[in-house]
Amino acid sequence: MDATRTDEPTQRHRPAVDSSRPFGAHLRMSWWKPLVVIGVPPVVMLVLQVLLYQVVGAIEGSDDPMSPVMTPLKSLAVNISIGTSGVVAVLLLARIAKVPWRRLISSPRAVDARRLTYHLVMAAVLVGAGIGVVALVAPDSPGWTTFGVSGTTIGLLAVTVLSTPLQSTGEELLWRSAVLPAAASWVRAVRPALAVGLVVSSLGFAVLHGSSDPWLFGYFTFIGLCTGLMAIISGGIEAPVAFHVANNVLFGVVSTVMADGEPYAIDRATDSGDASLLILAAVNVAMVVLVWSRERRTRSTTAG
User: Fold this and answer.
1) How far apart are CA 174 and CA 169, in angstroms?
2) What would the mean pLDDT of 272-293 be, rounded to a whole number?
């Protein structure tokens, strides 16, 4: 019998999800499919955001709808565009790789709401502590001015609390659920595959944040690396989603109330970052350690 012919059906019908491999390195697909996942959803996000900015500009009568000043409607536009791109990424990867979308959220285990709740509470504590340290050590670095409340403040707070969790979840769906395992599928050995997935997803995450400042670009890359590690360690995206939601909501709330009642601006130009970001980087590291510690306890309890 021809050995080559015998192997062909096996190669052609091998499962797209390998449950024996850790989350992030658990997918098999053709080499070109990750390129689609890496390229299409970010374009969807950017196009949708520009279109929504134009709509908001028409509603608000703005002369510069693309300005970095965040009104409530512009903030909502950003959150909708990013949240949508995350859903597009997961559905696209599930379709072209022929995998159940749930296996892009967690694998091999099922989605765990208790993990999400636990990590959300702990992330809020860690991020809150980080914000407190920044306020004491480098209060001018984040661009905070003075406390103030206005109609704009109330509107921004409502948008932040209600829609920022969707934005944060969308980023994790895009970069950790879709791009990380898609890029990792280029390599078969587990550790190199995870390394490739982490590098590609972290750099893509940083690039899409559009900062020309070395401090900020490095910090965004580091966030991507840490949230990727959280996903790999815990076998799903509950922990990175929890951390991302806590981080973005709390910083959004503080930035809003510390803008003296005015819309705040997102400044990511050169010289907009500084060494105070090391404090926030330490918060990311602490969250990775916390996730690792909980997973280790969970495995010990299960084994016992």
Assistant:
1) 9
2) 95
